[in-house]
Amino acid sequence: MSAYLIVKWFHVLLAITALGANITYGFWFSRAGRDRQHLAFVLRGVRMLDNRIANPAYGLLLLTGFAMTGMGHIPISTHWVMTSLILYVILVVIAAAGYTPALRRGIETLEAKGPDSAEYKQIAARGRTLGILLALIAVIIVFMMVTKPGG
């Protein structure tokens, strides 16, 4: 078994871990919406999953992706690689500038003003929209990696 295949296997595991964790957030938010006494617990749990599992996996995905391009002699300028990298940068910027702060502010606002406050509802809606957008970008990146269109 080659080192490239081991790095590729690890890369796939990281993608499953990162995107898989992200996909569960909608489920947890939906459950918490029906059982609001656990809403703060769910928000803190999602933040922990994001900070300790999904985000580190996304960071390692970048490293293993670069390792595979080097080991496999795949130019970064290859269409599907470059498109995926651009989408990855967009994903990171939206997550860092939008989703993570919205999640943090949502927890703070929920604890200070409650789930019925207009401010919390606005932050939750923003977080939901950004979360859906981020998941869509991640799914497109996975599509690019698997199908390798245009090259």
Topology:
Layout (H helix, E strand, L loop, with lengths): L2 H32 L4 H33 L7 H35 L4 H30 L4
Helix pairs in contact: 1-2, 1-4, 2-3, 3-4
Structure class = mainly alpha
Amino-to-carboxy terminus distance: 25 Å
- Poorly predicted runs of 5 or more residues: none
Shape type: elongated
Q: Count the helices. How many?
A: 4
Compute the gyration radius: what is it? 18 Å
* Main sheet characteristics: none
What is the H-and-E element order?
Answer: HHHH
If you average the pLDDT, what whole number results?
95
What fraction of the residues are assigned to beta strands by DSSP?
under 5%
Number of strands: 0
Percent in helix: over 70%
Keywords:
86% helix, 0% strand, 151 residues, mainly alpha
Can you characterise this structure?
The chain has 151 residues and is an all-alpha fold. The longest helix has 35 residues, at 79-113. It is built from four helices and no strands. Helix 1 packs antiparallel against helix 2 (39-71) and helix 1 runs antiparallel to helix 4. The model has no long low-confidence stretch (mean pLDDT 95). It has helices at 3-34, 39-71, 79-113, 118-147.
Short recap of the structure:
This protein has 151 residues and is mostly helical. The protein is built from four helices and no strands.
